[in-house]
Amino acid sequence: MCGIVGLTGEQLKVTDLIEALERLEYRGYDSAGVAYLKDSKLNITKSRGKVEVLKNHLGENLDQTIQTGIAHTRWATHGEPNDVNAHPHFDCSCKISVVHNGIIENYRALKIRLQELGHKFLSQTDTEVIPHLIEEYYNGDLLEAVRKAVLKLEGSYAIAVVHVDHPDIIVGARKGSPLVAGMSDSVKAIASDVTPLLKFTKEVIFLQDGELIELSANALKIVGFDGTTHKCQPVTVNWSYEDAQKSGFKHFMLKEIFEEPSCIVSVLTGRIKNDRIVLEELEPFEKMLIDSKTIKVVACGTSYHAALVFKYLLENTTPITVDVDVSSEFRYKRPHLKPDSIVVAVSQSGETADTLESVRLAKRCGAKIVAVTNVVGSTLTRESDCVLYLNAGPEIGVAATKSYVAQLVMLYLLAFKIGQLVNDFVPQSSQLIDKLMRIPEIFENSLKSSDKIRELATKYKEYKHFMYIGRGYGYPTALEGALKLKEISYIHATGYPAGELKHGPIAMLGPEFPVFAIAPNDSLFSKMKSNIIECRSRNAKILALTNHDNQEVTELADDIVFVNNSEEELYPLLMTPIIQLFAYFVADELGLDPDKPRNLAKSVTVE
Ligand code: AGP
Predict the structure, then answer these.
(1) Considering the domain boundaries, does residue 605 fall inside one?
(2) Residue 448 φ/ψ, nearest 5 degrees
(3) Which of 25, 88, 439, 493 has its CA at a distance of 20 to 30 angstroms from the CA of residue 566?
(4) Are 458 and 438 members of one domain?
(5) Are 70 and 140 found together in one domain?
(6) Residue 210 has what DSSP assignment?
(7) Which residues constitute the domain of residue 490?
């Protein structure tokens, strides 16, 4: 998975391409490169490492004015991260250059065929077949050559192509990987997402699968892979360019955690009227929801943990069974879905390959898809029957933080809505809804404890292992706490239902293996207390997360973080900023970059 960008227009410099690339670095950063046209010459610079390394390579060339350029930041799939495998790739004549995000599944067969025709390959990548294919088909018309080339490609891709004979033209194509175009009077741009475009415009076009685009300084043209002309349908995005900056925080992750209160407000806005949940998007499916016995949910990673909270909530408040599957498993199972089934797909990015394939499988069974996502125009939104947008704004840090909180809030709303439809779950829900509306304020308070959490992170950062435990609503929080810690600090962390400890994991505990206990004073606290005592008697240090009134924990834990008292259903939400901040500060204290954890990328658009 990679980030691609292309710019054409007036007064552009190489540094504009680099700045755009920096906005996309969250998509992968093991190598980076640019290709730009200047004085009818194609200049290519690429290197292993982050965009910063590429910048150093470019040196004085950063200031060069250019007509057109493309750039790439890579998350390697085919071929190790090195200078040769870095994009852009080019053809034999060195006139055509291509950047690509995705995977060309039939590249071996194409490469052999092209080699037989005399083409010389330099890299181990699947991408390199693309410029050579375009070279084969080029006959003076770049758009047509790219169109013919993409018809030969199998797999998923978003590409941007330049040719020295067309110094102000970029051709893009999309199948299965995101591609967005933007246009201002002076600049036309194309990129893997809107973030790099915001500097130039808020008017963007989300390309559809099977579309090609030709951008020139003065025009923009979209055609289908069959060559027919398609309508340009610009939409206005409300994200400001500043939204995508760090606003003074050391890292995007920290900034994004601190944005959580305002995210909650965004999700809730217009969604609650007189204690009733307003989700107009769901109206066509209300009858199906009322009749549902089971709702299937598919998601990956953090989104899966949000889905688990939804399961606990809906099963505790309605007769509906919620069946949550990790998308990468579900997509290869017998789905057991029918035309009256509802499938909820939870995905921050809306581009996660396994979740999209799960949705496609469900659709083949006739099921209706409700998407919960943050990204307007993402593939998931186009393939779903109903979309509940999170409106959390762009999330740049690879670790999901504010998007998780927004997912939780949206899934609470969805569960309450279904509860209201199914059994008019008003008395209980009105109390919960009232609390939900006060959550932003409570979050602000929790975030004030960040200094204390940094102290704890300093104390615990040297441990090599962590066990997160929870029961009931605390269990998904334990899973998410462990995921957050391991993905950004590289400390081994595992999440367990506390009741499972005795079935194996407790064997690992000891003075070198601390336990992070999610232990609010809820209906399962007495059970949780016993589990904490069991851990202590194995000499494990206990770091407990509980609520203010639960002073009993003081006798059990070595260290405690308190959150506001609440209904037990809402603790997964209230405790989230604490587990996120703990992971963030441990990573920061260890001198790691939490925004760009090794081996990870923001959206997993390949299997
Ligand atoms: C969590 O911090 C990760 N970014 C990852 O687990 C993520 O939640 C997962 O890849 C799913 O992504 P999605 O929500 O965009 O589908």
Answers:
(1) no
(2) -65, -20
(3) 493
(4) no
(5) yes
(6) T
(7) 449-600
pLDDT digits (tens, 9 = 90+) for 283-296: 999 999 999 999 99
pLDDT digit string, tens, across residues 5-40:
999 998 899 999 999 999 888 776 789 999 999 888
Does 9 contact ligand 1 (Cβ within 6 A)?
no
Can 232 be counted among the known catalytic residues?
A: no
- Residue 139: CB atoms within 10 A of its CB come to 9
- Position 606 in a domain: no
| Residue 474 backbone dihedrals phi, psi, to 5 degrees | -75, -15
Using the 3D structure, point to which of 402, 427, 445 is the last residue of a domain. 445
602 catalytic, yes or no?
yes
Query: Per the structure, how many domains does the chain have?
Result: 3
Based on the domain organization, do 240 and 276 belong to the same domain? no
Whether residue 475 is predicted with pLDDT greater than 80 in this model: the reply is: yes
Q: Which of 2, 263, 300, 535 is catalytic?
A: 2
Distances (CA, A) of 299 to 25, 330, 349, 357: 24, 9, 11, 11
pLDDT tier for residue 457 given thresholds of 50, 70 and 90: very high
pLDDT tens-digit readout, 107-142: 999 999 999 999 999 999 999 999 999 999 999 999
Its pTM stands at 0.76
499: left (phi over 0), alpha (psi -120 to 50) or beta: alpha
- Band of pLDDT at residue 309, cut at 50, 70 and 90: very high
Ligand 1 and 604: CB distance under 6 A: yes
Ligand 1 atom with least separation from CA of 484? 2
**Contact 580 CB / ligand 1 (< 6 Å):** no
24 and 120 in a single domain? The answer is yes
Ligand 1, atom nearest to 352 Cα: 16
The protein residue whose alpha carbon is closest to atom 9 in ligand 1 is 301
